[in-house]
Amino acid sequence: MPMKPIITFDEFAKMDLRIGKIIDCTEKEGSEKLLRLTVDFGDEGTKTIFTGIKQWYTPEELKDKHFLFIINLEPRKMMDEISEGMFLCAEGEKPIPLQPIMDVPAGTTLR
Question: How many helices (DSSP H) and strands (DSSP E) are in the chain?
């Protein structure tokens, strides 16, 4: 995939990247792709975030683990519910969820 257009630092600084702990993960009824994540972001509270990785990961593989998210995206309707952020994954043969290499509190900001 070619590089996307250059953005300014100010544009990058608008993204709120946080570590979140998945406290619940369920399959979205009627969807072959979506998992519904309930994610704890510490002082920011919990958010519902949908991710299209159901064919590669089970809810049990993700629950109670910390991952990287963007939490200030405009809410997006996915089927009949609202997703309040984005679960970040690297591209590969299958999506690779991004995790911190050490324990980090839920809600920790990335820069």
Answer: 2, 9
Q: pTM, whole model, 2 decimals?
A: 0.94
Tell whether 49 is covered by a domain.
yes
By C-alpha distance, which of 96, 35, 47 is closest to 73?
A: 47
pLDDT tens, residue by residue, 51-73 = 999 999 999 999 999 999 999 99
Question: Which residue's entry shows tokens 């629950």?
Answer: 63
CATH number at residue 31: 2.40.50.140
d(CA 49, CA 74): 12
Q: Are 9 and 74 in contact (CB under 8 A)?
A: no
> How much is the CA Rg of the chain, to the nearest whole Å?
14
